[in-house]
Design a protein that fits this description.
The protein has 143 residues and is mainly alpha-helical. Helices cover 66% and strands 4% of the residues.
Length: 143
């Protein structure tokens, strides 16, 4: 099996951290909450990193981009399930405050990674993606 090096990608490591933090949080919920919102939330969170990993193993830049778009969609699903969990009082404000920066960093990082696929190394002086303001549990919008 060819080593694709996805484990070295910062975007992948951040997706892992988000998934692990969510896992730790959900495992403490009662059975009903875990089997409904929790399962969906964990699957969506795990899917972000899984799609980044799978995309790097594909044979073309086009396939890789498709998987990164799916990872981005999974991150939106994570946001949805976190909003539901917050509304249903399954997570508290401290947990929201801990997850918001991860999501706020991961969303533009996925966009930047998507734009970089198939291009050469980053140019010196490239400022990278524009920062995003995260009003979660509200909407995530560009400044």
């Amino acid at each position: 099996m060819r080593d694709t090096g996805f484990e070295k990608l910062r975007v992948y490591r951040l997706a892992e951290k988000l998934a692990d933090d969510i896992w730790s949080m959900v495992t403490r919920w009662d059975g009903f909450a875990r089997s409904t919102v929790g399962v969906q939330l964990v699957r969506a969170a795990d899917s972000v990193g899984a799609n980044i990993a799978e995309g790097t193993g594909r044979g073309s830049f086009q396939d890789n981009r498709r998987f990164v778009r799916t990872a981005r969609a999974s991150l939106n699903e994570v946001r949805h399930w976190l909003r539901r969990a917050h509304a249903r009082k399954l997570i508290n404000q401290e947990q929201v405050d801990r997850l918001k920066p991860l999501i706020g960093e991961l969303a533009p990082m996925l966009n930047a990674y998507l734009r970089s696929i198939g291009k050469g190394p980053a140019r010196e002086g490239d400022s990278g993606p524009k920062p995003m303001r995260d009003d979660w549990p509200g909407q995530m919008t560009k400044d």
